Amino acid sequence: MFRALPYSQIDIIGAFFISLILSYLLTPAAGLAAMKIGLVDRPSSRKAHAHPTPLLGGVAIFIAFFLAILFTVGMDRNFIAITIGGGILLSIGLIDDKIGMMPELKLFGQLVAALIVVKMGIRVDFIKNYYLSLIFSCVWIIGITNAINILDNLNGLSSGIAAISAFFFSLLAWKRGDLCVATLAIALCGSSMGFLRHNFPKAKIFMGDAGSLFIGFLLATLAILGNWSSPTQITSLAIPILILGYPIFDTILVTISRMRQRRSIFDGGKDHSSHRLALLGLKKKRAVLLIFFINFCLGLSGYILSKLKTPASAILIMVIVFLCMIALGIRLGMVTVGSKGRRRG
Description:
Elements: H1 9-37, E1 40-41, E2 53-54, H2 57-72, H3 77-99, H4 103-119, H5 130-151, H6 157-175, H7 179-199, H8 208-225, H9 233-243, H10 245-260, H11 273-279, H12 284-307, H13 311-333
Antiparallel strand pairs: 1-2
Helix pairs in contact: 1-2, 1-7, 2-3, 2-7, 2-8, 3-4, 3-8, 4-5, 5-8, 5-10, 6-7, 6-8, 6-12, 7-8, 9-12, 11-12, 12-13
């Protein structure tokens, strides 16, 4: 069952289609199981759905990803680390979906999962000091995990963002001959796409915190695993940031907004970028599609950055993207958002 690298390009293709098909087939089954055990998201004044909706979509994504890798390339150290850490977060998410959990306890679980993968060798290598590298890696993993988690506020949004980001990670890794990261990333892309078919408006099932925590953790880990070299170290670091740019943007927007209102950043509410786009007049489905387009453009910018040969060109791309996102943030920040629907969690 354990297999040494390298992976093959056949494995990449196989991992994508296996994860896609399994996720597509397992998601309805997960929905039926969730309804039977009462693991559902019930309607309320702060929610858009009108009927109880099952919450086990994240389990279908996890199983599809796990089996796709197991059937194609088997286990190696990186996959074992990701599976253990991801499994911890999946379990925490399931508990939170069922009975709720204090944010501090969820954060502790995320730290444990991050420490496991870091201690097993998945950490940034541009910081030579071991302890600084450990701290930075943990902060990155926890930050991206939560960014994807809080982005899961409209049907299809987190799964679509995950599929797009994972696709660009896989493409870049494949171009560089890193078939390990390419296979892991494309399996996440396939499992997210298979689930998206059932989650896109009007959603028949939600991924819940179990799913958003798992895919956020996996995306953060893939960003560390890959070799995203470009003309300078700064632009190399910018590549994974661009690919995960929209979740980072949304988190910064919400954090600044709540700090200005002297609210806890742990409060829930309809003040995310997706809600603000809807308040500007976009229907929710169109708002989701627009965010997909922005995220695709950010991922494409990261890909272009990796192909450039001169630092000046790479920095120019970074500046243009940065200014565009600032302009978008300022515009969305001007949208008046009420406090209705706040919640702790």
